[in-house]
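During the reporting period the student researcher (J.K.) took over the structure-prediction task from the postdoctoral fellow and processed the backlog of single-chain submissions. One of the processed entries is reproduced below for the supervisory committee.
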Amino acid sequence: MNSTIERRIAKVDWEWVSTKPLGIVCWMVLGGMLVAGLWPFHSPKNQVKWLEGGNGLGFGRHGTILSSGKFKAANAPEAAPCSIEIWLEPHSTDGSGTLLAFYAPGNPRQFSLHQSISDLELRISKREGKFQTRRTRFYVGDIFRAGKPLFITITANEGHATVYISGARVEVASKFPLSGKDFDGELVVANWPTGDNSWSGLLRGLAFYDQELSPAQVVHHYETWTEKGKPDVLENERPVALYLFHERAGRIIHNQVPSGTELYIPERYQIVDQFFLEPFWEEFDPTWSYWRDVLINIAGFVPFGFLFCAYFSLAGRVKRPALITILLGFAVSLTIECLQSLLPTRDSGTTDLITNTLGTCYGVWLYRFKLW
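J.K. obtained the following structure tokens:
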């Protein structure tokens, strides 16, 4: 009887010794995934600084400025005319970022302006029901050049929008419903209000009007702003906000319109209203970058599923190693996504939760049905 017990103890010891290196590898993989998912573990310093020797602000990888109050245009007519002027210079054309966005929680309409590689994107998101958001997009192709200043004017009236580059008309969208009603809520510059989508570059001027500027006014503003550092605004023009970025120090960007909303530079990089486990149907975006992230998240958890299923199977201490591995992958992914909601440089969403769990399942399948 003693010999039988000794043989069982020896068998258990041998199993422990043989699976110990695999267990160490599993913990290393888990640690690496936590680091990759939660880095840099804190809110970084806001990478915004005043330009030396001129007007404007420079935005780094994680930089944003916010309005000190809310723009109030909710009571404006549905097709109220409006115009936007923005004078900027992108750092690169290798990625995408949000130039500006108006955001009001609960507001069914949100307007935003984006750089998409070398294209300009105008976007209006309109919530339709509880589980659906309709996005209307309009693109102006191939206008951004790294290190090249760009003066963009957008005018809108009666359901159509016109885009001017350096005073010259380049595109007309006959069915883009931009209106003064969209200048409502908090203004977020160089980032997305509910997640990390920061833009890098120089910003030299920004203005909003509650009227459609004429082609002659567009040219006049472009010429005076780029030559004198400020637009020559006539008496019959009605700016809602005009930011010259000529302060050159401090954290406040003053609105040149009396009693208008000012902008400020936060000390730390922040998201206005960061999502907690954003629903996958809201995250869906039929673009290559979206599908690339989906594939990366699936592939990233395949080693996790393979190694942990192997460890639980060889150790012999778990009755259902495949199921336990999948549940563990789900739990790890859920932990990462919950903690990411506290980090402004990361996004918390259910799409990653689903894709990570799928990756774990695929890793389990590879172990059980392909190699063993």
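The committee noted the following: DSSP finds six helices and 16 strands in the chain.
J.K. will present the remaining backlog at the next meeting.
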